[in-house]
Amino acid sequence: MTDQRASRVLTPLLASLLVIFPLSFSAAPRSRRAQATDAYNRAEATRARLAARPESQRKLSDYRVLILAYHSVYRLDPGYPKAPVALEDIAELYREMGRLFSRRVDFEESIKAYQFVMHEYPSASFLRDALLDIGDIYLTDLHRPEDARQAIREFLDKYPKSAKADDARARLTVIEQTLAAKLAPAPRPAPNTMTSLGTDTETASNGIPLVTEIRHWVGPHYTRIVIGLSGGEAKFETMRLANPDRIVLDLLNTRLSKTLAGMKFPVEDGFLRQVRVGQYKPDVTRVVLDVEKVQDFFVFPLPNPFRLVVDVHGPQEKEAPKPEVAKSPAPKENRASRAPEVASNTVPPAAPATKSESSPPSPRRELPEAAPPSGPPKVAGPTKAGSRTLTRALGLKIGKIVIDPGHGGHDTGTIGPAGLEEKNVVLDVALRLAKILREETSSEIILTRSTDVFIPLEERTAIANEKGADLFISIHANSSRDESARGIETYYMNFTSDPGALEVAARENATSQESVHELRDLIQKIALTEKVDESRDFAVDVQRAVYARLERATGAQKNRGVKKAPFVVLIGANMPSVLAEISFLSNPRDERLLKRADYREKIAQALARGIIAYGQSLGGIKVAQDRSATGRP
Asked: What is each CA distance from 473 to 18, 359, 406, in whole angstroms?
């Protein structure tokens, strides 16, 4: 066949093929690709304009229009490389809508959008994290940890070698602990947590700390807010702005977790309305507290990991004076009188004595009994240092006491040579102390924990402030590298240069999120109240009672005295507060004593004597009526 003949045959054939298969060879496919490209660029520009507008000016219709714009990219050309990206953007927008407009249905739609894009583009490597995003939505937005656990497990099954696998396993561990805590009896309602598990799947990069969580506790005239970071410490600036009234905190050189971006947390406690958080600048995270009738606020940082604590105080409402009439004992809480189930090398729960047990006398006979009020009320004397504090001048009484058993949960505290754990010893003593005080006084007794659970140090103080406590006592067992060390010592909150006191403070603060950073703010927080003077007197009474009782019982105990130290668990307490080191668990002899129920009972009785002695120095503690006078047993 000649070239001319071949040309005459092939030319019509090629023309026919072009007519039959226009989508494969014509310019039409390029037109749809171009349309998809234009649609994606328009959607991106619209989203940028929406993000630049204040949240208060955004409307639900704006988001719906934008979602349709991204969806048109997929409809125009599913094969366009940005089509899966557009579908992922839809999932992100639904989640943003849910947070901005408080619509649960939008979180559900976000999950569906993630699932759709994963189904349509299973080979897209950048979509692997979608399962983690789904887990975050289930956990932090919908509060469904079981579903979150399933999503993260699916991620680990599919991508066990992913760069985020370790983070996913860590998140899974936290979720498992959360679910386990739900099944375990709690000593009190869970803290009002805005976001407690914000971004375990995210990590700080380029040395820039990441803002990962915001938590808060609400009490009468008081709210504590804790802003958590990972990846290092951060400098911060604080300001109070008007019209509308708000407190603004800028965390410099930080990034905001994706799960917190643009979030609002309602508080509604009467003087604090809500907390808002956003990425104010590329390197500045801004937290805004919308407030009403706030009297004052204090900000101080805590490290390891770094956290920023904000204490907000509202105005104190004036109440009509109440007559000083002795009340019957407060009803006992079953949970507080029951110790956790423990294995060997732990302390058995406190229990009422039986006839077959060799137990110490009833604490009712150990403590001073109160008689019905008669004659003029007792006037509070000066402190042991000779000063008259406002507390004494106003004749204030002790009506509510918070007892804090140290450590708990994964934080065992000191472990003795034979394996006895501090967390169990101090819990048992605290339960016994609560029982004694409930029987001998009409004060309300609150425990920060009544089971083997871990509670962050800053939360323990927040509980006391939240409940409006009049006294706070934290119970611990001491430790020393020298196994022969023995003795009793009691601490109150203040700064010190004593190396021994600082060593003890460092050990007890190890699991706390607190330390002295931005010292000026912390000193202001401590020095603004008179609690240092009252706490010193409280510590003296507790130290005197515990040492005297244990010296008589065991001999050879050393009176290590009253000391001051910057304990995190005492920072920010609005009432006289002390930390009692009841014995050295690191001493083999003391460990053997602490295993004995009668010895722990003696410690509880001694602590009660110290608490009541301090209360009486103020002009009287609210004690129950004499049982013999009322005819009750």
From this structure: 89, 25, 10
Report pLDDT for 300.
79
- Which strand (E) or helix (H) includes residue 276? strand 272-281
Q: Residue 304: which residues within 8 A CB-CB, separation 6 or more? A: 512, 513, 515
Give the pair of three-digit tokens for residue 196: 């407690």
**Helix H segments across 304-362?**
none
* Rounded CA separation 321/313 (Å): 22
- 181's CB contacts (< 8 A; 6+ apart) are 453
The two tokens of residue 387 are: 């000063």
Q: Which two tokens stand for residue 369?
A: 């009994």
Cα separation, 472 vs 459, in Å, equals 13
The tokens for 367 are 């403590």
In angstroms and rounded to an integer, the radius of gyration of the C-alpha atoms of the chain is 32
The Cα-based distances of 370 to 397, 440, 443, 544 in angstroms read: 14, 8, 13, 21
The Cα-based distances of 152 to 129, 514, 630 in angstroms read 10, 31, 62
Residue 295 CA, distance from chain mean position:
24
Q: What totals of helices (H) and strands (E) does the chain contain, helices first? A: 19, 16
Cα 263 to Cα 195: distance, rounded to the nearest angstrom? 10
Q: How big, in percent rounded to 5, are the helix, strand and coil portions of the chain? A: 40, 20, 40
Structure tokens, 402:
């918070």
C-alpha–C-alpha distance, residues 563 and 337, integer Å: 31
For 247, the token pair is: 């407190």
The number of residues making up the chain comes to 633
If residue 277 lies in a helix (H) or strand (E), which one and from where to where? Answer: strand 272-281
Give yes or no for a contact between 408 and 449, defined as CB atoms under 8 angstroms apart. Answer: yes
Give, in order, the Cα–Cα distances in Å from 495 to each of 55, 288, 388, 462, 525: 44, 31, 22, 21, 12
Measured distance CA(444)–CA(458) in Å, rounded: 22
Rounded to two decimals, the pTM is 0.50
394 class by beta-carbon count within 10 Å (0-12 exposed, 13-18 middle, 19+ buried) = exposed
Domains of the chain from N-terminus onward = 23-183 (1.25.40.10), 210-313 (2.60.40.3500), 398-514+523-627 (3.40.630.40)
> Is the pLDDT assigned to residue 624 strictly greater than 60?
no
pLDDT at 385: 53
> Tens of pLDDT along 288-331?
988 877 777 888 787 667 888 888 877 755 443 343 333 333 33
- The separation between CA 486 and the C-alpha centre of its own chain, rounded to angstroms, equals 34
| CA dihedral sign of residues 453, 459, 463, 469 | positive
The per-residue pLDDT for range 444-464, each reduced to its tens digit, is 999 999 999 888 877 888 888
Question: Helix, strand, or coil here: 557?
Answer: coil
Alpha carbon 391 to its chain centroid, in Å, reads: 30
Q: Are 255 and 261 in contact (CB under 8 A)?
A: no
Residue among 413, 418, 587 at smallest CA distance from 507: 413
What residue type is 447 in one-letter code?
L
Q: Which helix (H) or strand (E) is 284 found in, with range?
A: strand 284-291
